Amino acid sequence: MSFVGELHRRNVVRMGIAYTVTAWLLLQVTDVVMQNIEAPPWVMQALLYLLVVGLVPTLLFAWVFELTPEGIKRESEIANGTSVVHQTRRKLDTLIILVLVAAVAYLFWNGKRPNESPPDESTAIESVKAEDDSPGMARLREQLAAADKSNTSSTTNDVASKSVAVLPFVNLSSDPEQEYFSDGVSEELLNVLAQIPALRVAARTSSFQFKGDNRDISEIAEVLKVNHVLEGSVRKAGTRLRITAQLIEAQSGYHLWSKTYDRELEDVFAIQDEISLAIAEALKAELALNDDGRALLSRETANTPAYEAYLKGRGLINQRGNQAITAGVRELERSVRLDANFAPARAQLAIGIALLQSSAGAYGDLSADEVKQRAGEQIAAAAALDDDFAELWAARSIMAAVQNDAERALEYAESALAIRPNYADALTWRVNALGDLGRYAESFAAREELLDLDPLSVVGRLNAVTTLRFTEPERATIVAKSLAAQSPWASHLALARVYVAQGEVDLALEQFLLAYAADASDLFSNLLLSFLYSELGLIDEGLRVAREAQPWVWLFAGQFDKAEGSLREALALNPGDLELRSGLGSALYYQGRYQEAVAIWQTTLVPSVFGEIVFSWGGNLPTAQFVYSLRQLGEYEAAEPYLSALDAHESASGELIQNNAGWQWGQGLIAALHNDRKGAIAELQLSVFNGMRDPTQLREPILSGLFDEPAMQVMRETVATRNAQNREKALTLICKNNPVPDSWRPLDATCAGF
């Protein structure tokens, strides 16, 4: 090799060094810039890819070509004595030195940069201390301190806990029919791992959202709030199955454990169970989990078509909304027809049927008696096959809930969770049952547990908005918007409820109409849309939304004789519905027919943690009206236990739900029942200040002793002005800026002259 040739090759090495150092510096500077402009992660990933790929052609180019005074030439074409390789060497040396100096300068500057992270909670608390020592600020400091303590505890527990998400196993077979089997492996793993007390397992409804998603493992783990991810694949070749599984530490991306299982394809479900148990046992050892000596159990599943229909049906039901639930019920009925001995399908079918009951908290048009019969048959059949599995207890829980037995609903939900702690349905019904029992602090804590275990659950987030819209409105808005990717209908419904709570009536109406366009058959959202139209005085529009809403529209409109007739017609078709009976009691009450109202309400009493409480679509209002009616009939002694129970219930809810117009109005009614005129006026003024919009609330008979108070007249005028403004906004929306003209058009009379 010639001396010049040797120098040329050394220059190639110099070129590689210069390229590498320059690329590193470019990446560092670009990273800072990208963070400041909040560029998406793929920008940095693309730049890194280009720089890595570009190194090889750069070195090849430097090897083959050389820079000469006449331009770039191939090295082989340069005549002896004309090479400028020594000049190129000096230029490369200079370039390397300059880039290294720039790199050192960057490192020095980066090390001196101030920490721009936001102050922690303790800093915020100290700031509050320094600024104000008023009683209000003292209360705020207490809340901040409690939040700081809670956050610290939560962070510690999250780091120390063992948690895992099981992602859907990838089907690598050419046969798409094997998809059910790969899903089944993941399903069984979830069920088996959830039996380990020391391991927190993300719920299926959330982890299965990442099916076919190629995003980074650490990002998935962050969303699912876990520190480990289990993923795998299934491949079928002839009569052979190969299943591969691997456990990944989320933060580092390190593969802690992996194994491949090869089996003959004889009984696919037996293989599924065997491998699920084997993987679970391996993970117990790998993560040093203490399982208290329990034997992990797997359950026999159905034939292939029945199992596939079961998965489809359950997935549809978890989306909520009438259309999705109805389609899910059809799939589950098909599953039962294909395999009558598949108990989970029967239990899940009962759940779907219960969700289609015609009631304010459900989604369909089935009568209470029809639900009891149809769902009851499926529960009995499932129990005959297996009397102790999670889906069965969950079905029993929702059936108790729709029959207004919150105590049993809670008991059955707890039984389901004892078998499968991450079971989203059971977690949801536990939250609801605790709330129905007035155990609000426990209900709120259970809600947070649900959102941790199943952060992508549609129903979990939809229900969470119900309370968050009053306690944490900003968070409620974020949760509501996060639903859009999975269920636009649910997102519109949740946002509408947030806007109603905030008094943004036109924004709420827009979202309700968008929900109507997405699923016009859903009773839950249709009732709420009808209520809003009624509140705005658009009675004819409210009556058009849904037949089931008509009794309540007449009641809210103050046309109590029409409400009575409509409720009696509905009860003739659905005599077991406590909501309809309670509503009929209210219609009679407003007509001054107290004896008839009391007789109706006495048939709707259900057990409560506070004693016998009137169950109703209207919360505690009929309880207060029941007390007032008994007093009007001279039965003061009989009324006292119910007033005491009402006091306890309102006090419990007030610990967590404050600055809420509805709760403060209820406090005003209770004060009036206690003959506390001053307290009643104060609570009613707070209710008006915080957005009361229903004018009938200030004409409630319980408040009749206050009607001559000047403050009441001022409040009526304030509410009337607010409602006129809201009505104007609503008419502008539906008459001029209709967001869903193909799904809903207002009556000509509604927009006449507007």
From TrEMBL:
<dbReference type="InterPro" id="IPR011990">
    <property type="entry name" value="TPR-like_helical_dom_sf"/>
</dbReference>
<dbReference type="InterPro" id="IPR019734">
    <property type="entry name" value="TPR_rpt"/>
</dbReference>
<keyword id="KW-0677">Repeat</keyword>
<keyword id="KW-0472">Membrane</keyword>
<dbReference type="Pfam" id="PF13432">
    <property type="entry name" value="TPR_16"/>
</dbReference>
<feature type="transmembrane region" description="Helical">
    <location>
        <begin position="92"/>
        <end position="109"/>
    </location>
</feature>
<feature type="transmembrane region" description="Helical">
    <location>
        <begin position="12"/>
        <end position="30"/>
    </location>
</feature>
<keyword id="KW-0812">Transmembrane</keyword>
<feature type="region of interest" description="Disordered">
    <location>
        <begin position="114"/>
        <end position="135"/>
    </location>
</feature>
<keyword id="KW-1133">Transmembrane helix</keyword>
<protein>
    <submittedName>
        <fullName>Tetratricopeptide repeat protein</fullName>
    </submittedName>
</protein>
<keyword id="KW-0802">TPR repeat</keyword>
<feature type="transmembrane region" description="Helical">
    <location>
        <begin position="42"/>
        <end position="65"/>
    </location>
</feature>
<dbReference type="InterPro" id="IPR051012">
    <property type="entry name" value="CellSynth/LPSAsmb/PSIAsmb"/>
</dbReference>
